[in-house]
Structures are given as structure tokens and as C-alpha cells.
Specification:
The protein has about 200 residues and is of the alpha+beta class. The chain has helices at about 5-30, 30-40, 50-65, 80-95, 100-105, 125-145, 155-160, 160-170, and strands spanning about 75-80, 115-120, 145-150, 175-185. A 4-stranded antiparallel sheet has the order 1-2-4-3, with helices on both faces. Helix 2 (about 30-40) packs across helix 6 (about 125-145), helix 3 (about 50-65) packs across helix 6 (about 125-145) and helix 4 runs antiparallel to helix 8. The structure holds flavin mononucleotide. Flavin mononucleotide (FMN) binds near residues 43 and 109.
Length: about 200
């Protein structure tokens, strides 16, 4: 009987050690955190478009992002047909005669699947809604082995290209705010540096 307290103490230590291990395991093997930390912008892609089954999952993750008052104040158009992409690029080049056509094409980084996202400018949270949708798209894509890059520059050219906007067919009142290029990565870029000093507790 006198060994009972010693046995109980040993058991307690074993349980505590195993809990500590579980906690460590959760931190090092958390797939969400791993995906967030491993994602990189990809600017070189293999030519094939992302298969539509995979895209369906990625887009579903996109629209499951939070949005202000659940307004889902976004519209999304996906182009994975090179012929359609050529039409849009040609219309964008025509609408921006001062810009070299190769620059207009280059702004899409040759991503074989392009997601165009439009926001509702009458709602002040709409850019945030679209940003959250975009991040969900990029992170879910990465977790499924699909690379991506967030692209602001096409939006500048789209603004002057009514024929391209018509082809994309956004509803009245929706304006493109960001594009996400997606595809299978043909490069493995290093992580870009981050500045942790931008974050601090207020105490
Ligand atoms: C709003 C926004 C606009 C961006 N526009 C472009 C762009 O037009 N072209 C481009 O190559 N990358 C663009 N990027 C990607 C950033 O350059 C990239 O996220 C940043 O350098 C950090 O690198 P990382 O994504 O690999 O962590 C954009 C990113 C964001 C969030």
C-alpha cells in the first residue's frame, strides 16, 4: 500500500509528459499553420490548367470565407480556357494603348487558371470580403498542391477595357478588385521576409 502514492505520482508524470507531447505535436503538425507558413506566390507555372474538380473545392473554400453581414459582396469569374484568356488580354491591350501588349499579358504571370474577383463598391467592407475570399482560395489551393499568386496589376488595365469587362460578365455595380492566378508550380521560391515589429501588444 505504501507504494501507491509513488505509483500515482509516476502515473501523473507520465500523463503530463504525454499531454506535453500531444500539445507539441499539435503545434508542429497543424496542417492549417503549415499551409499558411509554406505558401508562396508562384510566378512560374506548368501549362495545364487546374482540374475543375480541384477548382470546385478551392472555390467552395473561397466562398466559405467570412463576409460582412454575410453579404458575400463578391463575384467570381474563372477562366481556364487559353482562347478566352487571349480574348480578354487582347481587349485589355486595346483598352490600354499606351501599355506594351506584352506587359498586359505579363501581368497575369502565365497562370493557366485565372480567377477574377469583383467587389461591390457601394459596400465599404466589400474589399475586405474579397480579400478574405482570396486568401481562402490561395490557402486551400496550396493545401491541395496548387500554386497561386494574388494579382493587383490586371485590375488597372481592366478598368479601361470595357470589352474585357463585358466578356467577364460581372453584374451591374460590381468592379474587379483583384485576380488570383492558379496553376501547378514550376518553381519553389524562398519565403519573403516579414517584419514582426509591425505587430505589438498595447499594454
Ligand atoms: C493586393 C495584392 C496585390 C498583388 N499584386 C501582385 C501583382 O500584380 N503581381 C505580382 O507578381 N504579385 C502580386 N502580389 C503578390 C505579392 O507580391 C506577394 O504576396 C508578396 O511579395 C509576398 O510574397 P509571398 O506571397 O510569396 O509571401 C500581390 C499581392 C497582394 C496581396
Amino acid at each position: 500500500m505504501k507504494f501507491l502514492p509513488v505509483f500515482a505520482a509516476c502515473l501523473g508524470m507520465m500523463v503530463a509528459a504525454s499531454c506535453a507531447q500531444t500539445e507539441k505535436k499539435q503545434v508542429t503538425e497543424n496542417q492549417v499553420i503549415e499551409t499558411i507558413m509554406a505558401r508562396r506566390s508562384i510566378r512560374k507555372y506548368k501549362p495545364e490548367a487546374v482540374n475543375r474538380e480541384t477548382m470546385a473545392q478551392i472555390l467552395d473554400c473561397g466562398i466559405n470565407a467570412p463576409s460582412g453581414m454575410n453579404k458575400q459582396s463578391w463575384e467570381v469569374r474563372v477562366v481556364d480556357d487559353p482562347a478566352v484568356m487571349d480574348e480578354i488580354i487582347a481587349a485589355m491591350a486595346a483598352g490600354n494603348p499606351d501599355v506594351a501588349p506584352e506587359m498586359v499579358r505579363g501581368c497575369f504571370r502565365n497562370a493557366p487558371t485565372m480567377v477574377f474577383i469583383a467587389n461591390d463598391p457601394s459596400y465599404d467592407c466589400s474589399p475586405i470580403d474579397c480579400g478574405l475570399l482570396s486568401e481562402n482560395i490561395m490557402l486551400s489551393a496550396w493545401s491541395l498542391g496548387v500554386g497561386s499568386v494574388c494579382l493587383g496589376s490586371p485590375v488597372r488595365f481592366l478598368k479601361n477595357a470595357p470589352a474585357a469587362l463585358e466578356r467577364l460578365g460581372f453584374s451591374e455595380g460590381y468592379t474587379p478588385i483583384i485576380c488570383i492566378g492558379l496553376g501547378y508550380a514550376d518553381e519553389s521560391p524562398e519565403a519573403k521576409p516579414r517584419d514582426p515589429s509591425k505587430v505589438r501588444y498595447v499594454e
